TrEMBL record:
NCBIfam families on file: oligo_HPY (TIGR01727)
SMART domains in UniProt: AAA
Taxonomic source organism: Clostridium sulfidigenes
Protein name: ABC transporter domain-containing protein
GO BP field: peptide transport; transmembrane transport
InterPro entries (alphabetical): AAA+_ATPase, ABC_transp_ATP-bind, ABC_transporter-like_ATP-bd, ABC_transporter-like_CS, Oligopep_ABC_C, P-loop_NTPase
PROSITE patterns the UniProt entry points to: ABC_TRANSPORTER_1 (PS00211), ABC_TRANSPORTER_2 (PS50893)
Length: 326
């Protein structure tokens, strides 16, 4: 459905007063992945790892500095804005905050009619019927159409935001921390709704979250990001049950374990994630890695394929299996 090749984004930072360049933020550095029809790729990593930037690049809310984005085989990274406008309905996003994602002055009906109108999804005479269909699809009713956003709870607003995203009948949806602002009980309802809609309409999702239990629940595949790069990628079971990259191991060790009888030793990382303006040499993770070896400081590891299509970027796996396991 959608594929990114060597996706790269740099932001030039300028001094506000003198206008001189202060440096470059390397937000996304040569990222590659594919998401098939009906599949969810979970994207995890600390704040500042580049997850949300990837989501925005894929929707062309930001222009990539380099790389390609293919939607159903068509390169959408280089087409003109005019051409892209015709394709935009296929790509939608559900943001984190349902309070700011909806215009507080508009009724729900008007909010849902707007994308139908802009993208010419149905004829004007069918708007009301389509609004009703969208509301029912997300568990709301016809009585809700004339209300304003402030009359709804956070979970209901997120349902409306999902209905708005699906109004254009998209093929690919970015869910950017879409349940993070909700209570835990409401989170599960929204996650189940997102998954039910995927099954019904064959949607492909890029699901961005810092919450590993959410990622495990919704994803088929998981990509772990560190300082703008994917350091490990594989099936959700492989990543959660046997993480290989030391950074993934540390992330997973901090995740709650569903079986109380099973305990996992927490791996504490040293320090904070470095600035994306000053990425460390060699392996970008070397100054925090509990398993670093001599060459980690100077030689950047490649992303290598292990068993079952798993990809990992770490010198410990260069012979195809962990030196710790051998
Ligand atoms: Fe750690 Fe070295 Fe592997 Fe990087 S390459 S994750 S520093 S062991």
């Amino acid at each position: 459905m959608i594929e990114v090749i060597n996706l790269t984004k740099q932001f030039l930072i300028k001094d506000k007063i003198f206008g001189v360049n202060k440096g470059v933020v390397h937000a996304v550095n040569g990222v590659n992945f594919k998401i098939e029809k009906g599949e969810t790729l979970g994207l995890v990593g600390e704040s500042g790892s580049g997850k949300s930037t990837i989501g925005r690049l894929m929707l062309r809310l930001l222009e990539p500095s380099d790389g390609k984005i293919f939607l159903e085989g068509r390169d959408i990274s280089t087409i003109s804005n005019k051409e892209f406008r015709k394709l935009r309905k296929n790509l939608q996003i559900v943001f984190q905050n349902p309070y700011s994602a909806l215009d507080y002055k508009m009724t729900i009906e008007d909010i849902l009619i707007q994308p139908l109108q802009i993208h010419n999804i149905v004829k004007p005479l069918e708007y009301k019927k389509e609004v009703l269909r969208l509301l029912e699809m997300v568990g709301l009713s016809a009585q809700d159409a004339k209300k304003l956003p402030h009359e709804f709870s956070g979970g209901q607003r997120q349902r409306i935001a999902i209905a708005k995203a699906l109004a254009t009948r998209p093929k690919f949806v970015v869910c950017d921390e879409s349940v993070s602002a909700l209570d835990v009980s409401v989170q599960s309802q929204i996650l189940n709704l997102i998954m039910d809609l995927q099954e019904e309409f064959g949607l492909s999702y890029l699901f961005i979250s810092h919450d590993l239990s959410v990622i495990r629940h919704v994803s088929n595949k998981v990509a772990v990001m560190y300082l703008g790069k994917i350091v490990e990628k594989g099936s959700v079971d492989d990543i959660f049950d046997s993480p290989k990259h030391p950074y993934t191991e540390a992330l997973m060790s901090a995740s709650p374990v569903p079986e109380p009888s099973r305990s996992i030793d927490r791996i504490k990382l040293q320090g904070e994630i470095p600035s994306a303006m000053n990425i460390p040499s060699g392996c970008a993770f070397h100054n925090r890695c509990p398993k670093r070896v001599a060459k980690c400081e100077t030689v950047e590891p490649e992303l290598i394929e292990l068993d079952n299509g798993r990809l990992v970027s770490c010198h410990l796996y260069e012979d195809g299996r962990s030196k710790n396991e051998s």
